[in-house]
Design goal:
Blueprint: H1 7-36, E1 51-53, H2 61-69, E2 77-83, E3 90-97, H3 99-103, E4 111-124, E5 127-141, H4 151-163, E6 169-173, H5 181-191, E7 199-201, E8 207-209
Parallel strand pairs: 5-6
Antiparallel strand pairs: 1-3, 2-3, 2-4, 4-5, 4-7, 7-8
Length: 210
């Protein structure tokens, strides 16, 4: 014989079912979002994890530069700085990984200085035999920067040279599209002398075979 539930017991049972359904739904959504995550292509906005906001009040340019040169830093680690109103002072704007995400930080109305650690990788017998880090410095004066503000670029270059030591290549750009992996690779090869790596790694899966 079926046992009749009290009103309170029935209400509790309904609440338990609703709770289980909610938890199950949240798990399903999380599972779908995880499955849907895909690597960022060059023509798509970078993942939020590739552009890392830094605490500009505590992270100095020297510290940020040291981080991208660390042996544990992934290929394509970068930092972007801008000159402040104080003479010869630089402020770290953002750091991240991958050349495409770096290019998206270069705003047309700003004077910025970027450094990216490109890895020159040697492969022998299908195994990586060595990796050399080459830092590329980008002096960026946006296409919409007023003429008076362009003077900041001149003073900023001196400050950057004091922070960023051992730079392999310095380029000038006014638009992000002027920065291409092919041109950078050719310039790095020209500056690197006789040594030729198997490929250059610009981060986030962006590799260019030589």
């Amino acid at each position: 014989k079926a046992k009749k539930l009290s009103k309170a017991t029935a209400e509790k049972a309904v609440m338990d079912v609703n709770k289980q359904t909610t938890v199950s739904t949240v798990k399903d959504v999380d599972k779908q979002q995880t499955t849907a995550a895909t690597p960022v292509a060059a023509n798509k906005p970078p993942l939020s994890s590739e552009i890392k906001k830094v605490n500009t009040s505590t992270t100095s340019p020297a510290e940020a530069y040291g981080n991208l040169l660390s042996k544990d830093a992934p290929a394509g680690s970068w930092m972007v700085m801008e000159p402040t109103k104080k003479k010869s002072k630089l402020r770290v704007v953002e750091t991240g990984e991958g050349i495409e995400s770096m290019k998206q930080v270069l705003a047309p109305e700003k004077v910025l200085f970027a450094c990216i650690a490109v890895h020159g990788v040697d492969v022998r017998n299908d195994k990586i035999s060595s990796t050399r880090t080459k830092v590329v410095q980008v002096n960026f004066v946006g296409s919409k920067v007023p003429a008076m503000k362009r003077m900041m670029a001149l003073s900023g270059k001196t400050s950057v040279s004091k922070v960023c030591k051992g730079v392999a290549l310095v380029i000038e750009a006014t638009k992000p599209d002027e920065i291409s992996t092919k041109e950078l690779a050719n310039a790095l090869l020209a500056a690197g002398g006789a040594h030729k790596p198997s490929f250059y790694d610009f981060g986030s899966g962006n590799k260019l075979e030589i």
